[in-house]
Amino acid sequence: MYNDLRQKEKLAVIGQMAAAIAHEIKNPLSALKGFTQLQQEKDKGDDHYYPIMLNEIDRINAIVNDLLILGKPNTAIKTKKSLKDIVEYVLSVIDPHAQRKDVTINLDMKEPAVLVCDENQLKQVFINLIKNAMEAMPHGGTVTINAKQADNQVEVSVKDDGCGIEPDKLAKLGEPFYTTKNNGNGLGLMVTKKIIEEHDGRLAIESELGKGTTVTLTLPAIPNCG
Ligand code: ADP
Ligand code: MG
């Protein structure tokens, strides 16, 4: 118990430091992106490094955003939003990457659930989960996103048919900075968990080695009146 508390305090301090640094990085980074785009326009015809540069800048930006969320107490700014709109937006961003990796993403969302949520934070959740699903299928595969609403709760699952997770590793998921990837940072699930908890939701992960993984989010939703 005592150790647990010490660990929590340590993490809070590390989180605050990380967020402070992330905050400082954000402005120069957005200037860098803007000028890279301008220069790309100027160098038309000889611009083959620019997409890579812009992609890497976007990656730094995603890490910085994760760190910002971790270091702050509840930062959610909540409004009424359609879950489907949020997921469809994320899919429009991810689709080109998915196509390149031979990943098909199916969306099965019949009823348009409405949530009181921080739209950007929930977008980040789905980006993190779909990215993990894609990274678990290096040779391609299928991601299925399914949503079911019952009364005032919606259950959204992100399922892949990728490498799966060994049972003893399953318990470690979401632990600070836990990663099994060479180029991973273990921020994705940690941030996802924090955002879902701040939305009074729950996250559950089921997985079978060699078969695939399903991450299920349960979130409060505005009751259907149909
Ligand atoms: P990162 O992706 O940077 O490693 P995450 O917090 O997103 O960090 O994930 C932590 C770990 O959880 C991953 O390294 C991986 O081992 C495991 N994991 C998460 N999602 C999946 C998935 N869909 N399939 C297999 N393993 C997963
Ligand atoms: Mg990840």
TrEMBL record:
<keyword id="KW-0472">Membrane</keyword>
<keyword id="KW-0597">Phosphoprotein</keyword>
<keyword id="KW-0808">Transferase</keyword>
<keyword id="KW-1133">Transmembrane helix</keyword>
<keyword id="KW-0067">ATP-binding</keyword>
<keyword id="KW-0812">Transmembrane</keyword>
<dbReference type="GO" id="GO:0005524">
    <property type="term" value="F:ATP binding"/>
</dbReference>
<feature type="domain" description="Histidine kinase">
    <location>
        <begin position="20"/>
        <end position="223"/>
    </location>
</feature>
<keyword id="KW-0902">Two-component regulatory system</keyword>
<keyword id="KW-0418">Kinase</keyword>
<keyword id="KW-0547">Nucleotide-binding</keyword>
<protein>
    <recommendedName>
        <fullName>histidine kinase</fullName>
        <ecNumber>2.7.13.3</ecNumber>
    </recommendedName>
</protein>
